[in-house]
């Protein structure tokens, strides 16, 4: 197989995730798009790990999975807190920090 | 070297089918007007990613992906949807006012990345290497990457405590 197949798949998923982060207003949907981005990075890391016959890419992918799990936990807790305080999770209404 | 064996053809066909499914599901994640449908499409993307990891001979990462993402993270997402949105169904205000701006940004990034990748890696082939042994992987985690492993355990601990502190009612 060509390595470019995997790398291009990762690039496509990454761009779809970036589109989601830009286009979505709902905070939960933005977190889902971030998960798409992290998954595409994992595909790239594993493809390079296989290309160079080196295990480091596998280790990085496992660490990314762990960090993504932590990120989703804290992120959703923050979303719940925002929802409880404001009855809404639209990101464009959170403008208190605007100067 | 260029003679494609039967195995390679099967691998390529499998890759193509799974990749097409993943891309369709990913587009559905960012386009769907139903939050629950988007979450379930995300499950399809995660499962497809696990299958791609198997094609890349990384069986341990694939199993971890299924356990952590499909098992745990998706449940968290569904709970998040349930706790923040009372109704399950189509919604009209999921997108920003300027969501159209995302399309040229994404296409521009995709174009640049595709050009760079095709220019840089052209015809580089993945050797059909041996399966990554889980024993070797654990040796790699617990010898050269031990310190990041510890740091990661503290990150997870902090995330657990932080999530509890943030989400509890007091």
What does this structure look like?
The complex is a heterodimer of chains A (99) and B (170). With 99 residues, chain A is mostly helical. Chain A has one domain: Orthogonal Bundle (Helix Hairpins). In chain A, 78% of the residues lie in helices and 0% in strands. Chain A is built from 3 helices and no strands. The mean pLDDT of chain A is 90. Chain B has 170 residues and is an all-alpha fold. Chain B has a domain at 6-93: Up-down Bundle (Four Helix Bundle (Hemerythrin (Met), subunit A)). Helix content of chain B is 73%, strand content 0%. Chain B contains 6 helices and no strands. Chain B has helices at residues 6-31, 35-55, 59-84, 102-121, 134-142, 146-167. In chain B, helix 1 runs antiparallel to helix 2 (35-55) and helix 2 runs antiparallel to helix 3. Chain B is globular, with a radius of gyration of 20 Å. Chains A and B meet through helix 1, helix 2 and helix 3 of A and helix 1, helix 2, helix 3, helix 4 and helix 5 of B.
């Amino acid at each position: 197989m060509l390595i470019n197949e995997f790398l291009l798949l990762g690039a496509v998923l990454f761009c779809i995730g970036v589109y989601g982060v830009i286009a979505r207003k709902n905070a939960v949907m933005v977190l889902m798009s971030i998960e798409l981005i992290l998954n595409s990075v994992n595909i790239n890391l594993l493809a390079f790990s296989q290309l160079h016959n080196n295990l480091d890419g596998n280790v990085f992918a496992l660490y990314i999975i762990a960090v993504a799990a932590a990120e989703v936990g804290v992120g959703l807790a923050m979303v719940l807190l925002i929802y409880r305080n404001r009855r809404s999770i639209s990101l464009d209404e959170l403008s208190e920090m605007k100067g | 070297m260029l003679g494609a064996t039967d195995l390679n053809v099967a691998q390529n066909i499998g890759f193509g089918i799974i990749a097409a499914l993943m891309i369709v599901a990913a587009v559905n994640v960012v386009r769907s007007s139903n939050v629950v449908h988007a979450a379930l499409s995300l499950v399809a993307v995660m499962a497809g990613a696990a299958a791609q990891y198997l094609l890349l001979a990384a069986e341990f990462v694939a199993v971890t992906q299924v356990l952590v993402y499909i098992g745990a993270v998706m449940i968290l997402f569904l709970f998040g949807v349930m706790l923040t949105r009372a109704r399950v169904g189509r919604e009209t205000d999921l997108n920003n006012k300027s969501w159209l701006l995302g399309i040229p940004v994404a296409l521009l990034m995709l174009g640049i990345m595709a050009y760079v990748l095709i220019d840089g890696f052209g015809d580089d082939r993945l050797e059909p290497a041996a399966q990554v042994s889980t024993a070797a992987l654990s040796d790699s985690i617990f010898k050269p990457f031990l310190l990041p492993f510890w740091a990661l355990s503290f990150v997870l601990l902090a995330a657990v405590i932080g999530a509890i502190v943030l989400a509890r009612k007091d």
